[in-house]
Every structure is written in C-alpha cells, then in structure tokens.
C-alpha cells in the first residue's frame, strides 16, 4: 500500500530482534539500513528512519556492531529471553513521544505470539502505520499491517552500504547504561558490575500489557462522533431473549453508543436461519430499520 501524503515524509522507527532475524552470513551489516530504506522508498515512505537492534551483544562480532553503528543503527544489549520485553517497552515509549502521522516497524518472529494482544488495543486508540518483517511468517495476524516482508527477501536487494551516520548509541538494557562509543560499551558488558546486575536483578521476560487496565469502551473522539456505524448481528450466538420486544433492539444499541458519544447514523443487519425466526420478530425488526439476512448455521 503506497504511502499517503501525510505519511510520506513522517518519522519511521524500527525495532529489530537480531536473534529472530539475524544478519545472514557474508552480508555486510552496513547494508541493513540501506536495505530497509530502499524498501520503504519503494512504497513511498521517505521520512527519517531510526533503527535499534536488540540482542545479546556479547555474542555479536565486532565487525557487525561497527557496521551497524557507523550507519546510524543503535544497538541494545538484552538477555535473549527479555528481548521482546524491552523492544515493546521502547515501542510504547516512542509512541508517547511521536504522535501520528508516523510509522512503526517490528522485525521479529514474536509479533503474533507476544505483541498482538496489547498492540491491537494501542492501535485502536491511536493508529500508526505498522510494518512487519519476519524470518518465519506468522500463521495468523490480528493486527492490521500496512506492509510486510520476509527478512531474507528484504535484505536480498543488497544496495550499497549506507554512508557514515552519527547519532547511533549503544544501550545496555540490563543496567540502564548507554554510550556513544563501542569500546566503552564493550568494556561495560565485560565488567563485574554488569554481570552482577544481570544475575542479581534479572529482567522479567513477560511483556507488560499497558492496556490491561483500560476499560472496554472508549469515548468517541471528535472525528468519529458523527461517523457512520455499521452493526453485523449474529442471531445464532446472540438471540433475542424470550419475551423481549424486538422493536427495542435498535433503540437499545443506539442508546448504548450515544452514551459513548457516537451519534452517527446506525445501520444494522441481523444474520440467522430466519425460517425459524418468528414472523412477529421479523416484522418488529424490519419496522425499525433492521435489515434481515437469511443464513444457515455454521
């Protein structure tokens, strides 16, 4: 899907799990940024790109770290089991500081299993463009994805390595440490204080669900207050209660959405095996503008 005007030059932030999606053997680390930017520009996205690579950086060869940092890719040290935790924490922090229009990209095989539940709700409240890259394609995806790539295919174009870019940093998520200098970073990772911190205060590997205490129903924002409302109603799962006047279905729904500030026109379609729906109920629904669709169960 090509970028719309408001997203064409907006910020793009990338969070990359290096364990799930490693740099292929023989591939130059300095080409990662170029490969991503080429893919973005092919879809019309040319805004500034920030990239952070997460992983156990004690296991990452120096030439890869240097190649990433020299092209403006920040690196974050995490224990393997806590990588998703820190990636998601940083993603949520970034959202707070960067309102839409903006684009987020997650490079990981964990999106379907770990990120989806909470991120779906965040996206429902504040919508960003969302890109995804993976080594193994998810079996299912609830999130609405604007663009997605196979990691190996994304890197296959092999453009020239990006020029030297300043601004990249090295982070140790275990110790809340950062540095602009790779030698300082490596010295920190090999220090006793770092080893002790990881041993004494291990990071919880379970993602924080930032929306867990949110209510289920949200007040309408101005752009949705008078927008159209479409209702698809499964009579098999949610039948009209015995003794309930079917003429009350529409006003009940309209009253509920108006309590949340939604005043737009409401269209309702009821689906069911209407050979078994009493004629009185069908007439009552129809008289209040509820459309009736006959289907069979299953």
Automatic annotation (TrEMBL):
InterPro entries: Marf1, NYN. GO terms for biological process: regulation of gene expression. GO terms for cellular component: peroxisome. GO terms for molecular function: RNA nuclease activity. Residues 11-127, 228-294 form the NYN domain. PANTHER family: LIMKAIN B LKAP, NYN DOMAIN-CONTAINING PROTEIN. This is NYN domain-containing protein. It comes from Brassica carinata. The lineage of its organism: Eukaryota, Viridiplantae, Streptophyta, Embryophyta, Tracheophyta.
């Amino acid at each position: 899907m090509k970028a719309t005007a408001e997203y064409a030059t907006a910020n793009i932030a990338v969070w990359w799990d290096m364990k799930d999606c490693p740099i292929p053997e023989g591939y130059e680390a300095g080409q990662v940024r170029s490969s991503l930017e080429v893919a973005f520009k092919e879809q019309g996205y040319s805004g500034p790109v920030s990239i952070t690579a997460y992983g156990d950086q004690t296991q990452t060869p120096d030439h890869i770290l240097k190649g990433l940092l020299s092209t403006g890719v920040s690196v974050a040290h995490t224990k393997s089991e806590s990588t998703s935790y820190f990636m998601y924490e940083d993603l949520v922090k970034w959202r707070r500081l960067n309102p839409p229009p903006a684009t987020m990209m997650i490079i990981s095989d964990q999106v379907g299993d770990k990120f989806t539940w909470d991120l779906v709700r965040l996206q429902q409240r504040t919508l960003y463009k969302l890109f995804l890259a993976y080594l193994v394609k998810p079996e299912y995806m609830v999130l609405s994805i604007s663009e997605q790539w196979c990691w190996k295919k994304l890197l296959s174009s092999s453009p020239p390595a990006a020029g030297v870019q300043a601004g990249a940093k090295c982070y140790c998520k275990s110790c809340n440490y950062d540095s602009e200098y790779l030698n300082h970073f490596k010295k920190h990772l090999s220090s006793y204080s770092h080893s002790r911190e990881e041993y004494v205060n291990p990071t919880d590997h379970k993602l924080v669900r930032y929306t867990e205490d949110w209510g289920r129903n949200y007040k309408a924002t101005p752009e949705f207050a008078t927008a159209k409302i479409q209702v698809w109603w499964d009579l098999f799962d949610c039948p009209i209660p015995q003794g309930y006047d079917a003429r009350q279905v529409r006003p009940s729904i309209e009253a509920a959405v108006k309590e949340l500030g939604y005043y737009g026109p409401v269209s309702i379609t009821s689906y069911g095996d209407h050979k078994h729906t009493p004629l009185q109920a069908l007439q009552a629904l129809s008289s209040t503008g509820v459309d009736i669709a006959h289907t069979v169960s299953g």
